[in-house]
Design a protein that fits this description.
about 325 residues, alpha/beta, seven-stranded mixed β-sheet, 11 helices
Length: about 325
């Protein structure tokens, strides 16, 4: 860790896991990185926690064991407790802990600045989420294409049949779509608005009484002829839960894109979710299909009508936890 006289502590940027030649080595580097070490040290509460601090830096125990211990450690940051992210409570953080969480998040790639490696991608994916994400990510993907920064062979919005909660109804009304009440419809609305689309060319899917059994695909085409799909994937455990990000990746790879080795994929999300969602993409797309994957966060404030979104220190700690859990699954898949 280095010190800035005016801004306080800061860290060197930690490479995004899965962007190097060896994803397993990337995970090891992430675990021993200065911001991860500092976060564990700042939130350690007992002798077992302090032992973890030393073991992370000394690389004591294999990667899987250290990830598992770190996963347990991050339970103290889980204020969601099964709720949606916009319903999560705030942690009672000290000023030092709050500042550390913010600068660590920046070093871990959660505040933007990820780079496009290519100027042409076979597939551009926009990941769903709360309504703000459904509007901003689709607008940013359209901006990347419209501004000529990238050429896209196809565009796919991946959402799910998740009912709105909390302030999402008010945000939908502010966006001019008070009729929206769930994520998939919001993704469809955001995609149509961002890409100037009319009615879908085809619609397919099926309804299910199971929590994660309903799925749907709406297929469009831009005036330039680029195919655009809005997809709600089924869950891999439909009787238990709705589809998660890995479920959406798998459905896209097998049913929508028929991925082939060496194709290039660009995932567009919100900066705070880049590390966790990229690790999932490496596990679900790069490893099994041999494709190249980039993940970028929308440039805050760049798209008109989408002001920069501010996240609290608690929200960043929640996504550090999500990253740890995503890395555990990736490490397991690599082994």
């Amino acid at each position: 860790m280095e010190m800035d006289k005016q801004m306080g502590a800061y860290f060197d940027q930690v490479p995004l896991v899965g962007t190097g030649l060896d994803s397993a080595a990337d995970i090891g580097g992430w675990l021993t990185s200065a911001p991860v070490h500092a976060l564990v040290e700042a939130f350690a509460e007992d002798a077992e926690d302090r032992e973890l601090v030393g073991d992370l830096m000394a690389e004591k125990g294999d990667v899987a064991e250290r990830l598992a211990r770190l996963d347990v450690f991050t339970d103290r940051w889980d204020t969601r407790q099964g709720l949606e992210r916009n319903q999560a409570a705030e942690l009672p953080l000290s000023p030092d802990q709050e500042e550390l969480a913010l600068v660590a998040a920046e070093a871990l790639g959660m505040c933007g600045g990820t780079r496009l490696r290519f100027d042409q991608y076979d597939h551009v994916l926009m990941l769903g989420g709360l309504i703000r994400a459904c509007l901003v990510r689709t607008a940013y993907a359209a901006h990347l294409i419209r501004s000529g920064q990238i050429i896209a062979g196809s565009v796919t919005a991946l959402g799910g049949h998740r009912p709105f909660v909390g302030d999402e109804f008010a945000l939908a009304a502010e966006a001019g779509a008070p009729e929206l009440s769930e994520e998939y419809e919001a993704m469809d609305f955001g995609t149509r608005r961002a890409f100037g689309l009319g009615e879908p060319e085809t619609v397919e899917g099926e309804e299910s009484p199971l929590p994660g059994g309903t799925w749907g695909v709406r297929r469009y085409r831009t005036v330039e002829g680029v195919p655009v799909q809005v997809v709600a994937a089924p869950s891999s455990e439909p009787e238990k839960r709705r589809a998660d990000t890995p479920d959406s990746y798998a459905f896209f790879a097998d049913q929508i894109a028929a991925l082939r080795p060496r194709e290039r994929l660009l995932l567009v999300t919100t900066p705070i979710y880049v590390p966790a969602q990229h690790a999932a993409a490496v596990r679900m797309l790069k490893l099994p299909y041999g494709v190249e994957v980039d993940t970028v966060g929308n440039d805050p404030g760049l798209v008109e009508g989408a002001p920069a979104q501010k996240f609290s220190a608690t929200k960043y700690l929640l996504e550090v936890r999500s990253t740890v859990r995503s890395l555990r699954r990736l490490e397991d898949a690599i082994r």
